[in-house]
Amino acid sequence: MNNNQTWPCTSSSSPFSSFPLPTNLTTSDYPSRSVRLCSRLPPSKPPEQTDFSSLPYDVLNKIASSFDQPNLQSASLVCRSWSEALRPLREAMTMLMWGKRFKHGKRGVRQNIEKALDMFTKAAARGSTLAMVDAGLIYWERGEKVKALDLYLMAAQLGNSSAQCNLGISYLQVEPPNTEQALKWLYKASKGGNIRAQYQLALCLHRDGGSKSNIREAVKWYMKAAEGGYVRAMYNISLCYSFGEGLSRNHQVARKWMKRAADRGHSKAQFEHGLALYSEGDMIKALVYLELASRAGEKGAPHVKNVIVHRLSAASRNHAMLLADSWRALPSN
Question: Which bin fits 14, alpha (ψ -120 to 50), beta or left (φ > 0)?
Fold first, then answer.
């Protein structure tokens, strides 16, 4: 469920303070009053102890349905009752692990999508929202969109933010698109901290355009996703600063975000950053970024790169190519 769209097409502390205690008084100044006041207070009750072992199984399983392996194991050790209640989810986690091995052909297992789907659906039947998402992905890629949507919805209602994100994007891609439901689930996932959903939500709001409030809301979610490490959001927030969309123009901040995106492998950002360096006269660095953009398939990059190549000495060209060959993208989400 990849969504390659990036920049959308344009369309028509408390105010109260306490009084200081006098420093020249001791407890002997008001002994009788102090005793009388204390004697009127009711005896304190010990704090009530919550018996978590009495939590209904269905409630516990809903809470734990999105747990990963370490959290599930920790929850299973709380008490015997929890261990028994979470047994289906522990079984599901084992099936999920095997499903991923079959899907990707790892750990000595030959790739087999049918077996992967079988493992994911069995794990989903035991309540794992992680497995529901993985099974939904396979169904979606097969074109069985109704089955995928059912699984995404089930996991989304149990609070899985990846499922909420996938569900929101899916509602945008079905025919006809359901923008209302898409925004509903993208908002839920975004508020839960899913950075991919934050980017997709910003893109929807930005594409919708029109009102300034939508643009400002889009910029807010672009920024959250960018700060969370989502590269496409870094590129878009840079453009927002450059064009003054949803915030004041700031070329310095725009350059900062463009470089961050470029250093994390965004080819358009590499091209844009290379052009900026070229305009500033930093030819060697410009050549490095334009070479990276060219290798990534940016059509405008080779022409500008060749202009720079003809202006540099052989030693400078070789140095720039060496830097490009040794370049590695910084980690991103």
Answer: beta
Q: Which residue has the tokens 């399983």?
A: 61
Distance, first Cα to last Cα, the chain: 16
* DSSP 3-state of 129: helix
The distance between the two most distant Cα atoms of the chain, rounded to a whole number of Å, is 96
Q: Are 213 and 183 in contact (CB under 8 A)?
A: no
**96 touches 123 (CB < 8 A):** yes
**Length, in residues, of the chain:** 333
Other Cβ atoms closer than 10 A to 29: 10
**pTM, to two decimals:** 0.79
The residues, any chain, with a CB within 8 Å of residue 250's CB and separated by 6 or more, are 241
What is the chain's alpha carbon radius of gyration, rounded to the nearest angstrom?
Answer: 28
| Angle, in degrees to the nearest 10, between helices 57-64 and 87-104 | 30
Per residue of the chain (333 residues), what is the pLDDT tens digit? 555 566 665 444 433 333 333 444 344 444 443 334 344 445 555 555 555 566 676 777 778 888 888 888 888 888 788 888 888 899 999 999 999 999 999 888 999 999 999 999 999 999 999 999 999 999 999 999 999 999 999 999 999 999 999 999 999 999 999 999 999 999 999 999 999 999 999 999 998 766 677 899 999 999 999 999 999 999 999 999 999 999 999 999 999 999 999 999 999 999 999 999 999 999 999 999 999 999 999 999 999 999 999 999 999 999 999 999 999 999 988
Using an 8 Å Cβ cutoff, are 118 and 100 in contact? no
